[in-house]
Automatic annotation (TrEMBL):
Keywords: Hydrolase, Lipid degradation, Lipid metabolism. It comes from Candidatus Manganitrophus noduliformans. A motif (DGA/G) lies at residues 188-190. This is PNPLA domain-containing protein. One of its GO terms (molecular function) is hydrolase activity. The active site is at S42 (nucleophile), D188 (proton acceptor). PROSITE patterns: PNPLA. Residues 9-201 form the PNPLA domain. The lineage of its organism: Bacteria, Pseudomonadati, Nitrospirota, Nitrospiria, Candidatus Troglogloeales. A motif (GXGXXG) lies at residues 13-18. A motif (GXSXG) lies at residues 40-44. The keyword Lipoprotein does not apply. InterPro entries: Acyl_Trfase/lysoPLipase, NTE, PNPLA_dom.
Length: 303
């Protein structure tokens, strides 16, 4: 039976900060908020697709945390990035020197190849989180957002192998390789759509809940190199884009995860807790706005 009123959930990127989505999902589920469509960008695509395949917040959290604490994940090159970030924070001469040398290795590899981590390793690790099925087979309809590298346009994936679609949506340039789907080479969807509200509206969502787990531009940190400044400028541009996209959502939940680095995957409990806290703060407002919009549509249908 066709639902007369559809609730959509838009999950943004943010790397490890996106683990906060799992906390939000737990609260929405416990409060009985039924979801009819989910769209995700970057890490939001991982969280959203896991839940769309198996709509049980506790199970999704356990599966994600088990993987992040596994020896398999610890062997990934993401731990190289983690160590570099930790050493920067300690900021002694020796650790800074080591950090600069490591950065040289990282960017040297990324300049010679299309990515720091190979496609084979990348897709293999993504695959551990998902059943080998098509996007169209998820229990809750799901959309993964990626960016077309050649044409600079948004690509919304709603069918085909879910593992490759998620890999495409999360393909951070320089770190993970572009993923070829059809004729397109696809990269991280956050470059064109930080929090995918529009794809949900275009597919019939009447009410959209958006989760923004990105780093706030108000977060203060040192900018000690030209690279730091370039990356910060990119963040500012993407944040401006995000603001205009989020304006179309009915409710925006912003977990307080600005202090987390995108590679802080070992701080999963903290990120998830922040998501729960943010969702609980918004839940009464969300319910009130959801009820009002449902009643408005019901009255229009009756008329």
């Amino acid at each position: 039976m066709q639902k007369y009123f559809k609730v959509g959930l838009a999950l943004g990127g943010g790397g490890a900060r996106g683990l906060a989505h799992l906390g939000v999902l737990k609260v929405l589920e416990s409060e009985g908020i039924e979801l009819h469509l989910i769209a995700g960008t970057s890490f939001g695509a991982i969280a959203g697709a896991m839940y769309a395949q198996h709509p049980n917040a506790d199970q999704v959290r356990q599966r994600a945390c088990d993987y992040l604490s596994s020896e398999s994940f610890r062997r990934t090159k993401l731990f190289f990035i983690k160590r570099h970030y930790e050493e920067e924070k300690r900021a002694t001469f020796i650790t800074n020197l080591k950090s600069y040398l490591q950065k040289g290795i990282f960017w040297g590899i990324s300049l010679r190849r299309s990515s720091f981590i190979s496609e084979q390793d990348y897709v293999a690790h993504i695959s551990r989180l998902f059943d080998d099925k098509g996007i169209e087979e998820t229990v809750i309809p799901f959309l993964a957002v990626a960016a077309d590298l050649a044409h600079g346009r948004e690509v919304v994936l709603s069918e085909g192998p879910i593992r490759r679609a998620i890999a495409a949506s999360c393909a951070i340039p320089g770190v993970f390789p572009p993923i070829t789907i059809g004729d397109a080479k696809l990269i991280d969807g956050g470059w064109v759509n930080q929090v995918p509200v529009d794809p949900l509206i275009q597919r019939g969502a009447d009410f959209v809940i958006a989760i923004d787990a990105s780093e706030s531009t108000g977060t203060v940190r040192a900018f000690t190199s030209g690279l730091d400044i370039v990356l910060r400028a990119s963040e500012i541009t993407r944040r401006a884009l995000s603001s205009s996209q989020l304006a179309k959502a009915d409710v925006v939940i912003r977990p307080d995860v600005g202090q987390l680095h995108w590679s802080d995957f070992w701080r999963s409990d903290e990120a998830i807790r922040k998501g729960e806290e943010a969702a609980r703060e918004k839940i009464e407002e969300l319910k009130r706005l959801l009820w009002k919009k449902k009643m408005k549509k019901l009255l229009m249908i009756k008329v």
